[in-house]
């Protein structure tokens, strides 16, 4: 392991090890009563990577999600407030995002100092509206649903680009490892793939990113990206035609100022993970996207490499996270296990073949 990565390993281990909250049911009940004057009768855990998410059904009625931020992210209340504002702005513009419920004193979040097993630490707490549905990963990926997914992603970015907020500049996030504008940062983590044939593929993708994406980036249209429009952050529910419709957009923690084409690439990549024929995903998602926001020539020419780049980000950072937290390997490697085979297949097929399939299929769907 190179010195920089060794340093990152120990710094991350020290700062993140006890950052995830673990509030007890009694602590949750006390917070619900004190902050929201609600009596928590039904409480159950919801999935989360490094926060604590809880479904809460008060006796007074309604359904909510109590979101308790980890102690590290809780040190940056401005970006959490901005994410909360973005969710509300999307909801006001007709997109199915959660909104924050004010406390009895009118605040959308509260910084709570509580000992949940690691000594007293400060955690930002928000009560969010509960969105019904199941994650899109649990239903069949029909072309119609994939089209709707692409269309929703484009609508989301168009709305976010109109958002006004005094602190938008903090979304620049120049060193944010998950931004598709920062793919070259992966080079600092490559040692996690030492001895794995996948390392050469990842290095080649990064080289293509440097040679084909970066020189064209000045012609990409900028916007605010959700940044993680994946199969676990999209909720669906049955529609009136024996199919499914999108009923929820979750998790705005990766929001960053990027490019429209980045969001499309991220969406295609994560839909490929859940599809039995991953290459078939690109056409319908692309068609849905372009029904709202047609791509220009340079954006089209970089789509293939950007999709591969997102696979590389996911695979490399999953390996790195498992190194830090081996106890979470099953959760952390969910995308990675499927993604390795798909990345290798898409890489072997090559840019020309994959793009032709995607764009020809999209054209057949009406673009």
TrEMBL record:
Keyword Kinase: yes
Pfam families, alphabetized: APH (PF01636)
Cellular component aspect of the GO annotation: cytoplasm
Reaction catalysed by this enzyme: (5R)-5-hydroxy-L-lysine + GTP = (5R)-5-phosphooxy-L-lysine + GDP + H(+)
EC number assigned by the record: 2.7.1.81
Gene Ontology molecular-function annotations: hydroxylysine kinase activity
Record flagged with keyword Transferase: yes
Keywords: Cytoplasm, Kinase, Transferase
Taxonomic superkingdom: Eukaryota
Domain Aminoglycoside phosphotransferase residue range list: 43-282
Alphabetical list of SUPFAM superfamilies matching this protein: Protein kinase-like (PK-like) (SSF56112)
Broad class of the protein's primary localization: cytoplasm
InterPro entries: Aminoglycoside_PTrfase, Kinase-like_dom_sf, Pseudomonas-type_ThrB
Free-text function comment from the UniProt entry: Catalyzes the GTP-dependent phosphorylation of 5-hydroxy-L-lysine.
PANTHER family: AMINOGLYCOSIDE PHOSPHOTRANSFERASE DOMAIN-CONTAINING PROTEIN-RELATED, HYDROXYLYSINE KINASE
Family: Belongs to the aminoglycoside phosphotransferase family.
Protein name per its UniProtKB record: Hydroxylysine kinase
